[in-house]
Amino acid sequence: MRKLASAFAVLCGAWIATPALADIADDLNQLRREGCDNRPGVSQPLRSSKGLDVVAREWSKGGRLRDAMERGDYRFTNSASMHVEGATDRKAILDVLRANYCETITDATLKEIGVYQKRDGIWIVAATPFVTPGVKDAAQVSKEVLSLVNAARGKARKCGRKQFAAVPPLSLSAVLNRAALIHSQDMASKSFLEHRGSDGSMVGERAARVGYKWRTVGENVADGAQTAETVVQLWLKSPGHCANIMTAGFTEMGIAFAVDRKSDAGIYWTQVFAAPR
Fold first, then answer.
1. Which pLDDT score, from 0 to 100, does residue 1 have?
2. Which superfamily is assigned to 19-129 in CATH?
3. Which superfamily, per CATH, for 135-276?
4. pLDDT at 6 over 50
5. Whole-angstrom Cα distance, residue 105 to residue 31?
6. What is the mean pLDDT of residues 55-72?
7. 75: exposed, middle or buried (C-beta count within 10 Å: 0-12, 13-18, 19+)?
8. Closest alpha carbon to 49 in 119, 108, 120, 130
């Protein structure tokens, strides 16, 4: 879920030359480390982001922060903004930030910062970027999902109202990985989240197309999750998806994700379960 917060502060006074953008970011990070308004400091500084610099510039033109994010093509999971008018010097700017934006500045979930300055106005945007695994990470992500799924299967658990006993681990199937990837790519390219593919196919048909002769088959899908741990936790919290994970009749699994920055969710996942004939 994307979260945005925005606020505005005006500093009245005579105009003089404002500090460099780097100075503003450095001062803000110093305040972030020290903490303020009885809030503890955050050791991790906000990283300067050229992408957020663009967003800050776009936001200065007016309108909503969300629209500026879209114009700047910056994908995020949450964000916040700060705006100071009538800025004079570094101390005065820092005093305004300390007085009005302490909660935002000490938000440990925010990771990057962008700054734009025009005359005596300063626009600051902080955000957590939407980061997904890359194609080169696919094999490692598959192993992580398999490990998390087998850890879940190794313990008795409730999926909704249904109780499941611990069941044997699954093995990873390269053939089922291909079936999963085909569906993930289909969903990502067309921005949908369904078990039925854009060509009308269901999981059994897709598994058969890649050469898997199955006795029983099932599927989980998800979107928006940025890590293996997150997607498995999402599935375990959903009774139907959890039941698939805990089904004793499945012996093999395939897993794949597809990323498309222009899609609605950014990343789409497919998990295919099966037992061969």
1. 41
2. CAP (3.40.33.10)
3. CAP (3.40.33.10)
4. no
5. 8
6. 94
7. middle
8. 130
